[in-house]
Each structure stands twice: as structure tokens, then as C-alpha cells.
């Protein structure tokens, strides 16, 4: 069944539009120990939620904005609360030194506690998929179903001819023109400076979404912390347990992040798994094939 997207203009704070309520919570500081107080958005269709909430967790260098249009569509069309989060050191969430999957799963658990959610469908892309997997494996009472987009519970390959360390080095060397009139101007200029290091225009535009202006133009992500923890982030914790709940892995046919060589470990950790690949999609399945992705996820979430 095909669902039409309802692309809604950007909403701020709490706003009602076409029966859709969005609540956005910002977080800029933390004590530095324990769970991080994440920034998140919550979408609800006029408070009428007939199904388990859906939590959507973005990947490395992303933010909750990556899932905003899909989150609104899922909420409107499946009658459930949809929660998107900025993981630590990304988006509007606090900057801290530590980044590991157990800690990041604890951050998401804290969001659920704040919202009074006892159990939810977990969906994560790439790094966010690993966070969702760790939640399911270590906190199964919180996860009704698990959806993992284009990542395996193994060491991730750094795709492309350029590695993340080179991205970070180039990004750190950028000196933003503080006299620029608009954010669009800064992103255009930065795109030119990064094109040799990040030749793929789609990936480059994705990276450029991390430029913001509050008092000055700057990178929104914590480059130092992400780079310092990169070995941990591309790996996956060794866990001698399994999650028996319904699980869906969605890969792109042009991506190498979910390969047959990964199937034995996926099935060991998630025995009730279904593995599907989307034709002609790469790593960002939800962005490249949004309607196919939405159909797959919606069908999988039935009865939850």
C-alpha cells in the first residue's frame, strides 16, 4: 500500500498543523557523566496514538532533521507517536568526550523515560542502527520491534575512496567567512573547499547540513569527539546475547554494509530477523527510495 507523503513546512517548538503535533526539545548542556540529555522531536496526530511509538535514530554526521519528513508521514499515516533524536555530539544535543554504543543507548532510554514510553519500535540508520541494536540486545523490554537500516553488527567499512579521518581533517581546516550574509552562501563556499576531499555531491551536501550560525558560523557536530571515538563507532560491541523480537534489516542493493557474509552474525543476534534489500539504493535508503522504505517499515510495524 502506498502512502502519500505530507511534507509540512518547518515547525518550531510546539505547533499544530493538519492534526499533527510536533514538540521539539533542545538540550545544550550536560553534567558530563551518566546519560546525556538529548535534543529530540516528538510527532503525534492530535494526541490519538493507537500503536507503539516509533523512535528514529540518525547516523554519523546526521541529525534528527534527516528523518523529519518521514517521521511526520509515519505519524500521520500509522497513528502513532514518532520520536526523532539527536545523538550526543550531533545536532542540538550536548558535546561530550565519551562516545560508545552502551552510553548512547542509555541516552535514548532516558528520552523514553522522560516521555513516559515503556516500549517502542526502534529504527536506526548506520551508526543509529547500531545504537538501536544495542538497545534491543541489552534492554529488550524497551523494544517491541527493531528496524536496522544499512548496517551490520560488525565492523563497518568506511565507504568511498576517502575515509572519515580525512573528512574530519578537511572540516577542521575550514575557516568560515564570518562576513557572509547567509548560511547558504557559507555552505556554497565550503562545498567548493571540500569537493576534492568529498567528491560525491550527495555526501558533501549531507556534511554541509552540519554548518550552523548561532553567534557565528561553525560546525554543529563535535568533530574532535567523533574522531577520537571513531574506532569504537565503526565497531560493534561483543555481546553474548540475542534479541528474540521481530527484526527487519533493510539494505541498499548498491551498498556493501549488509552482505551475505554478515548474515550468520545477524541471525545469531537476531533470530527472528528478515533481511531485505532495496533495488538501486545505496547507503541512505530512506533518502534515496523514501516511498519503498516507508512501505517496508509501515508493513513491518503492523500490529505494534
CATH superfamily of the largest domain: Alpha/Beta hydrolase fold, catalytic domain
CATH fold name of the largest domain: Rossmann fold
| Number of distinct beta strands | 11
**Separation of the first and last Cα atoms:** 17 Å
In short:
The protein has 304 residues and is of the alpha/beta class. Helix content is 33%, strand content 18%. Strand 4 (54-57), helix 1 and strand 5 form a beta-alpha-beta unit.
Describe the structure.
Helix content is about 35%, strand content about 20%. The chain is of the alpha/beta class and about 300 residues long. The strands form two sheets. The chain has a nine-stranded mixed β-sheet, with helices on both faces. A two-stranded antiparallel ribbon has the order 8-9. β6, α3 and β7 form a beta-alpha-beta unit. α2 crosses α3. The N terminus is likely disordered.
Give a quick set of tags describing it.
globular, Rossmann fold, two-stranded antiparallel sheet, alpha/beta, 2 domains, single chain, disordered N terminus, 11 strands
Amino acid at each position: 500500500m502506498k502512502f502519500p507523503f505530507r511534507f509540512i513546512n518547518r515547525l518550531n517548538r510546539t505547533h499544530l498543523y493538519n492534526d499533527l503535533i510536533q514538540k521539539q526539545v533542545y538540550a545544550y548542556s550536560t553534567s558530563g557523566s551518566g546519560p546525556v540529555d538529548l535534543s529530540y522531536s516528538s510527532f503525534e496526530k492530535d494526541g490519538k496514538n493507537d500503536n507503539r511509538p516509533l523512535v528514529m535514530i540518525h547516523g554519523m554526521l546526521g541529525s534528527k532533521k534527516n528523518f523529519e519528513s518521514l517521521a511526520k508521514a509515519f505519524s500521520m499515516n500509522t497513528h502513532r507517536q514518532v520520536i526523532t533524536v539527536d545523538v550526543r555530539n550531533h545536532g542540538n544535543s550536548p558535546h561530550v568526550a565519551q562516545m560508545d554504543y552502551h552510553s548512547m543507548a542509555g541516552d535514548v532510554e532516558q528520552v523514553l523515560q522522560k516521555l513516559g514510553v515503556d516500549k517502542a519500535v526502534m529504527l536506526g540508520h548506520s551508526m543509529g542502527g547500531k545504537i538501536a541494536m544495542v538497545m534491543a540486545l541489552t534492554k529488550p523490554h524497551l523494544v517491541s520491534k527493531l528496524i536496522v537500516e544499512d548496517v551490520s553488527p560488525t565492523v563497518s567499512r568506511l565507504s568511498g575512496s576517502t575515509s572519515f579521518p580525512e573528512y574530519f581533517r578537511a572540516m577542521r581546516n575550514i575557516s568560515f567567512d564570518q562576513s557572509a550574509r547567509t548560511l547558504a552562501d557559507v555552505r556554497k563556499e565550503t562545498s567548493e573547499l571540500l569537493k576534492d576531499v568529498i567528491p560525491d555531491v550527495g555526501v558533501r551536501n549531507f556534511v554541509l547540513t552540519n554548518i550552523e550560525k548561532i553567534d557565528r558560523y561553525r560546525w554543529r557536530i563535535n568533530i574532535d569527539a567523533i574522531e577520537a571515538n571513531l574506532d569504537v563507532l565503526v565497531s560493534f560491541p561483543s555481546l553474548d546475547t540475542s534479541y528474540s523480537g521481530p527484526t527487519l534489516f533493510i539494505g541498499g542493493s548498491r551498498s556493501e554494509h549488509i552482505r551475505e557474509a554478515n548474515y550468520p552474525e545477524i541471525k545469531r543476534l537476531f533470530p527472528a530477523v528478515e533481511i531485505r534489500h532495496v533495488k538501486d539504493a545505496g547507503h541512505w535508503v530512506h533518502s534515496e527510495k523514501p516511498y519503498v522504505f516507508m512501505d517496508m517499515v509501515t508493513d513491518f510495524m503492523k500490529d505494534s
